[in-house]
Specification:
By secondary structure, this protein is mainly α. The chain is 58% helix and 5% strand.
Length: 167
């Protein structure tokens, strides 16, 4: 079977690659070697996208030195958005839910606040946000997106009355 860099429990674009089982995920998560390789692969992909992992404990991210060139690539080629969604889902499967939150917030900030990734905005809102496993963290991210989305009246990713009251 073909090997995937960020395997999931669902089929992706390559139908020859078989989905992970729950037992495989548990085995991966128990192996220090596998998890070290996973983090190396994550850092490699982040680098490709113009992002650095600043802190392995927290998942904190920042723009890499070559961010302008790499963001141009992200804006030009939408197939990267599918890969990012896959990476986000895999982070959740492998127990890196804090990393999920950090990566989604990074993309929300770059798309809605900094406006450096306009062609990634829809994917960040439609897909990236909803890969976050923690309902509470997902709610915080939806609120963050709502706060920065313009025009706010066009925000459709959460109920306006609840977003206005959210603390």
């Amino acid at each position: 079977f073909p090997f995937r860099l960020f395997p999931l429990r669902e089929h992706g674009m390559n139908w020859r690659a078989r989905p992970l089982t729950c037992q495989e995920i548990q085995a991966f998560r128990k192996s220090k070697e596998v998890m070290d390789r996973f983090i190396r692969a994550y850092k490699l992909m982040l680098g490709f996208y113009g992002i650095n992992l600043v802190n392995e404990e927290t998942g904190e991210l920042e723009r890499a030195e070559n961010w302008r060139e790499r963001f141009e690539n992200l804006n030009r080629f939408s197939h990267n958005n599918l890969r990012i969604t896959r990476i986000l889902k895999c982070l959740g499967e492998m127990g890196y839910e804090d990393y999920q939150v950090r990566l989604v917030k990074f993309f929300l900030t770059e798309t809605l606040v900094e406006e450096t990734l306009p062609n990634v905005k829809r994917s960040a809102l439609d897909y990236f946000l909803f890969t976050v496993r923690s309902k509470e963290k997902r709610r915080e991210l939806v609120h963050y997106a709502w706060q920065h989305f313009r025009p706010r009246s066009s925000f459709v990713w959460g109920p306006r009355d609840k977003l206005q009251k959210y603390r």
